Amino acid sequence: MNTNINTGAGFEVALLAAGAIFAYGVWMGRRDLGFRAALGVLGASLWSLLPVGLWFLSAGGRSTPGGALPFLIGLSWVLSFALSFLPVYVAVNWLEVIRWETRPRE
């Protein structure tokens, strides 16, 4: 029996980015920053659920005037695609923070 769950590429990329930034934080000797970064990346991945609200709005039981349903579906697809890059952006930002905190001081 196949038990794979299709969660979408955005969430899988967010998990990969969270694990990579946590590993980088541990490697640089700042496990605390790595853990905070991983939580930030996973928190940013929750923003990908925002377009689901548009689906519920479009299927709210009342009719949408003037063909707004296709517009809302298209808008939710575009937002979902755009927000899938947000966890990677947050991970890169945390990468710079970890690099800044672990740089040699003079």
What is the topology?
Elements: H1 9-27, H2 31-45, H3 50-58, H4 68-83, H5 86-101
Descriptive notes:
This protein has 106 residues and is mainly α. It contains 5 helices and no strands. Helix 1 runs antiparallel to helix 2 (31-45) and helix 3 runs antiparallel to helix 4 (68-83). The longest helix has 19 residues, at 9-27. The chain is elongated and about 65 Å long.
Throw out a few tags for this protein:
106 residues; 71% helix; transmembrane; membrane
Helicity, in percent? over 70%
Describe the oligomeric state of these chains in a short phrase: single chain
Strand content: under 5%
What is the end-to-end distance? 59 Å
- Count of structural domains: 1
- Output the radius of gyration: 19 Å
Q: Please give the number of β-strands.
A: 0
- Poorly predicted tracts of residues: 1-7
Order of helices and strands: HHHHH
